[in-house]
Design a protein that fits this description.
This protein is an alpha/beta fold. It has a domain of about 200 residues: Rossmann fold (3-Layer(aba) Sandwich). Helices cover about 60% and strands about 10% of the residues. The two termini are about 45 Å apart. It binds zinc ion. The site of zinc ion has 5 residues, from loops.
Amino acid sequence: MQSAQTMALNELKNIREARNAELERRRAELRGISSEYAAIESGLQRAGNNLLRSVLNGGKDFDRIKDFIQTKQREKTALLRGLDLPADYLDEKYNCEICRDTGFDDEGKKCACLKELTAKFTIVNSNMSEMMKGQTFENFDLSLFSPVPDTSGKAELEIARSAMDKAKNFADNIENGGNVLLKGGIGTGKTYLSSCIANRVLDMGKTVYYETAYKLCELLENIHFEKGDAEYLDHAASVKKYAEDVDLLIIDDLGTEFQTQFTAAALFDLFNTRLMRKKPTVISTNLGLDELNNNYSSRFISRIIGEYTIIPTVSRDLRRKKYE
Ligand SMILES: [Zn+2]
């Protein structure tokens, strides 16, 4: 997996190459239909070389060569007009005039277009679905939750608001590290809250990687047992590295992976690597603490309890409520 900036620079390179190829195609086309154009082009090329030589030789014949170039350019414009082509038919046209699609301005600073493209690819690298990209704190709909306390004395609305506030606080202070365990039954908004956190952190210009525990474990297993061809394994290794290095890792639905001794150890390693590097992780699970205890090592669980802020989500199926 390439970094977002590498992907952005590659895209700019593709833009430049496509433009050059199109310009070359147009020139060749014109040379084919107009010998006058071919003569102008080679005249301009020679004059360009002469101008450079003149500059190196202290400016001898500089003005004469410049006049010649201007004359040839006027002839070229007239010729294009005669062929009913726009005057800028052979000009280099840039998507970004500031950096001429190189990604860097004249002072060598990153251009705004490079930053924008990098942000776009950071979102691509986040592995979030289109639906998740729209799940934000701003769109969080508290009206889904009942304000009436249940038998335990707590209202859904209260739990949901508290979960949202804690998640928001975590996202806004991502610089300070910390980790979150979102805990609640199926369909209680864990993935939604994960997306809210992810989108907020992406907005800050940080990198995020989202994956389900199921798919992440499959990947870790494939790497470990060398399942797949060389190209796939290369890619898988780079995804694993990204999961270790990314500013925020989100692992959805811990407990739904195919559980083996290997997957439990591999997940523990990943969590531990990130803890040691002080890189924040969000885990969501519908397992209770007892089930977590049964399914994973006590070392694993004590790490989670010690280092993660546990955020309970509303214990009811929100997906069902929509249809009620
Ligand atoms: Zn630019």
